[in-house]
Write a structure and sequence with these properties.
elongated, 16% strand, alpha+beta, 3-stranded antiparallel sheet, 59% helix
Length: 158
């Protein structure tokens, strides 16, 4: 049932992008979706992402875009007041490997931080902070990953 739904959804997306409901567009969409699903089944490690709830993860990209803009304004403020660069290691509560990767990629996408290392449940980051603020790992954890992690934890299956 899942493959039929996936094929129908991909075909519908193709028809929408082709801007016409013709038998050729539907047939082309069915062929392309069959090929896409074949490659997904062959190369995508579904066992490794089986503990992720994709319905709860669907709105995450929109949330991330908002966080990128907020972090950008925060970094502009830091740069204007005087920046200090530090390396900090913060823990993560996320157990699903796929969600950890999404988290560290999200942290790197937000201005003001770069991933240096992901080691089990520890994330080492290079981050920019206000030179007047203390080098507090808890403050770094809250600023760099807490909101993103809370959002991703909702998508993690128990």
């Amino acid at each position: 049932m899942g493959k039929v739904f996936s094929m129908a959804a991909l075909t519908a997306v193709w028809v929408i992008l082709a801007e016409g409901l013709t038998w050729r567009n539907v047939l082309t969409g069915l062929i392309i979706s069959t090929i896409a699903l074949f490659f997904i089944a062959k190369f995508l490690p579904l066992k490794e992402i089986s503990n992720v709830n994709f319905y709860k993860l669907a709105t995450y990209p929109f949330y991330l875009i908002g966080q990128i803009y907020l972090a950008g304004f925060h970094v502009i403020k830091i740069i204007l007041s005087g920046p200090k660069v530090d390396i900090v290691t913060v823990p993560t509560k996320i157990k699903a490997e796929a969600l950890k990767i999404i988290l560290v990629d999200s942290i790197t996408l937000t201005p003001g931080s770069v991933l240096l290392e992901l080691n089990d449940d520890k994330i080492t980051l290079l981050w920019i902070r206000d030179k007047k603020s203390p080098n507090d790992p808890k403050a770094a954890e809250e600023q760099l990953k807490a909101k993103l992690e809370r959002r991703l934890l909702k998508a993690q299956k128990p």
